[in-house]
Design brief:
The chain has about 230 residues and is α+β, with helices and mostly antiparallel strands. It has a domain at about 145-225. About 50% of the residues lie in helices and about 15% in strands. It has helices spanning about 15-20, 25-55, 55-65, 85-100, 105-115, 120-135, 205-215, 220-225, and strands at about 145-155, 155-165, 175-180, 190-195, 200. Helix 2 (about 25-55) crosses helix 4 (about 85-100). The longest helix has about 35 residues, at about 25-55. The N and C termini lie far apart (about 55 Å).
Length: about 230
């Protein structure tokens, strides 16, 4: 039977082969496959989700402003040309970034920025989002100075980033403000620590330090630098 159907030999094990069969190997292979597939699937899902979200901004906006211009599909969502909304948003962002460098436009942006920062209720949301984005990009990047900081004990170190070097407004001299992100979480803790309890990591890139923290120390800095 196995000669006629050779593929069945994989499933029809002899008695001595059944005794040597180790279920633990299946568990090992399962987790090996999971380790390989999970990052790929999650990354693909995140990229596709972000693309679909951005791609849907333009049709939803046009549907809200001009209901007659955009028809609905069978699911009740605004019809769209895949990729057109995403491309439009990218072009708008690039255009705004370009014209913001012009003198008269930058003055208008600063005026608008001042108004939003002084508007009750709105200023809390606006300044929080603005400061958070500027911490990662732009001319006011904050998470670009990775350090080791001893908070709990002089021999126990946390990995974080210096965000402020002048804390005189809090009555503290020779203190730095250090932000320590949490592992596997979108959160962290802000510490105000004396300078002598901080070690600046000049040879470690901020991106590598962030990956090391987020991964819980699993990421190998030597591999990321290579």
């Amino acid at each position: 039977m196995t000669q006629k159907w050779p593929f069945l030999s994989v499933y029809l094990l002899k008695p001595n082969q059944m005794k040597s069969f180790n279920p633990g190997r299946l568990i090992y292979y399962f987790f090996q496959g999971l380790i390989i597939l999970a990052p790929i699937v999650i990354t693909a899902w995140a990229v596709v989700s972000l693309f679909n979200f951005v791609d849907g901004i333009l049709p939803n906006l046009l549907r809200t402003l001009f209901p007659e211009m955009v028809k609905l599909d069978l699911q009740g969502n605004p019809e769209k040309i895949p990729g057109l909304g995403f491309l439009t948003v990218v072009v708008i962002v690039l255009f705004v970034g370009y014209i913001s460098s012009l003198f008269f436009v930058s003055r208008l942006v600063n005026l608008f920025d001042t108004i939003l920062e002084k508007t009750p209720g709105i200023k809390l949301i606006y300044t929080t989002v603005k400061d958070f984005l500027e911490a990662f990009a732009g001319n006011k990047r904050k998470f670009d100075k990775p350090v080791l900081v001893a908070v709990d004990d002089k021999d126990v170190w946390r990995l974080g980033f210096i965000t402020q070097t002048d804390l005189s407004q809090f009555g503290l001299t020779d203190y730095y403000c250090v932000y320590v992100p949490h592992s596997y979480a979108f959160s962290g803790i802000t510490y105000m620590v004396q300078k002598d309890r901080i070690k600046v990591l000049n040879d470690v890139k901020s991106a590598d330090a962030m990956k090391f923290i987020v991964s819980g120390g699993v990421t190998d800095l030597a591999e990321t630098e290579a």
